Amino acid sequence: MTKKPLILVTNDDGINAPGIRTLISIMKTIGDVVVVAPDSPQSGMGHAITLDSTLYVEQVFIDDGPQTEYSCSGTPADCVKLAIREKLTRKPDICVSGINHGSNSSINVIYSGTMSAAIEAGIEGIPAVGFSLLDYAWSANFEATHDFVKTIVENVLNQGLPNGVVLNVNIPNLSKEKIKGIKICRQAKANWVEEFDKRKTPQGRDYYWLTGKFVNLDGGEDTDEWALENGYISVVPIQFDLTAHHYIQTLNTWNLND
Amino acid sequence: MTKKPLILVTNDDGINAPGIRTLISIMKTIGDVVVVAPDSPQSGMGHAITLDSTLYVEQVFIDDGPQTEYSCSGTPADCVKLAIREKLTRKPDICVSGINHGSNSSINVIYSGTMSAAIEAGIEGIPAVGFSLLDYAWSANFEATHDFVKTIVENVLNQGLPNGVVLNVNIPNLSKEKIKGIKICRQAKANWVEEFDKRKTPQGRDYYWLTGKFVNLDGGEDTDEWALENGYISVVPIQFDLTAHHYIQTLNTWNLND
């Protein structure tokens, strides 16, 4: 019998979120599961790490099963670092993050705690995938995600991922029958147009709530946004070498040393 | 007389940090300066944004001069969003972030609040540069940075930057005479090997401090780490389209839809 893979599970909505409970239940059918996840929601945390504060990690027992679970006071990136250095006895075969309540497609990847955890694992040389469902509700229905998530994780375990590449998977909020399949995509050139809702405190001080509209200006049919709008699950390979290699030659023509 | 450029200044060490005070004083020699910066240090915040909390922005008066300054309760990315939507009367000609107290070279770009502010401006279509000095001390000496920072900003104002590209500039902690020049680089493949310092609270509860060693495994002489170790200022063009385009073809050979 082949050795079961060791699977590290984390997220950014917190260890009690239905999305990570779903992901844990799917991963238990594939391998040995260790969970290290934030003790409270960390959405929009980007790739934050905790430098100026202490970190707590406590074993917790939430659902039945053989998995080991730890709740951590830090960010998603902290959770991955702590898992690797302090809680796992060996390097995991894969790290899965999510299932996020809400989209991490296109530019959202930049702000995403879910993806920062996957990227952190990628930096450590661990194959990693972030999963998100396009439904922000806590009561989101994750049923349709099961088989697709399992297929993607099994493929990553079988094929591996090259150093420096992690997968950003977004799942449309559709029933299983309506999902047309899985599509490999590029990140759409889309962004948020923020609007700040300006209010006054009871004491009369101005304050703001961040709100915004998502705008996709990318007409391409090879993007994650196109796939999701057309009923597909999007898989975008992403990298954390941010170098804009195509622009180095131009910069070398500037007169920076005159 | 040509119209003076409008320059948005921000950082992640907080509006009172010597690094941003230096950057403001340099920018005042180039154009009209508006500052929107965090009211307290935000290092290691990555690309965090404030979704579940309110934001305060207050005009402040710190140094003499014609600049307008606002202190903001949010993250560096929040500051840029608020500046653009609420505080600036027109789109700035450039956004500069820093000068950070400490390196944001190689993989540090991922964790950097300084660079997240520059990236946020880049997403908004504003030419943007993040500056960092390789000295974490609050009392760091920024004197040597003046002329180099000015040269880079003037070049960006003259040449522009293409959509989707921002500059990550790191400056070695050397006297002006010892700095050999400015070098265009790629992001080194380096990472942190974390070590957690495990302690006990007075009440006996375990907690951790994140610490770590920086490890550069990249032997290339075209990297930012090489440049900095050899006395050069590194300029890395970075992008926020994270797609690993080179891996799309391989992923299309996987059997994800069988």
What does this structure look like?
Chains A, B: Its cofactor is a divalent metal cation. Chains A, B: InterPro entries: SurE, SurE-like_Pase/nucleotidase, SurE-like_sf. The structure is a homodimer of 258-residue chains. The first copy, chain A, has a single domain (6-188, 221-251), classed as Survival protein SurE-like phosphatase/nucleotidase (Stationary-phase Survival Protein Sure Homolog, Chain: A), CATH 3.40.1210.10. Chain A is globular. In chain A, helix 2 packs parallel to helix 4. In chain A, the strands form two sheets. The first copy, chain A, has a nine-stranded mixed beta sheet, sandwiched between helices. The first copy, chain A, contains seven helices and eleven strands. Chain A starts with 5 loop residues before the first strand and ends in a 7-residue tail after the last helix. In chain A, strand 9 and strand 10 (206-216) form a beta hairpin. In chain A, 24% of the residues lie in helices and 29% in strands. Chain A has helices at 18-27, 76-87, 108-111, 113-123, 146-159, 224-229, 248-251, and strands spanning 6-10, 32-38, 57-60, 68-72, 94-101, 128-133, 165-171, 181-184, 190-200, 206-216, 232-239. Chain A is an alpha/beta fold and 258 residues long. At the A-B interface, helix 2, helix 3, helix 4, helix 5 and strand 8 of A face helix 2, helix 3, helix 4, helix 5 and strand 8 of B.
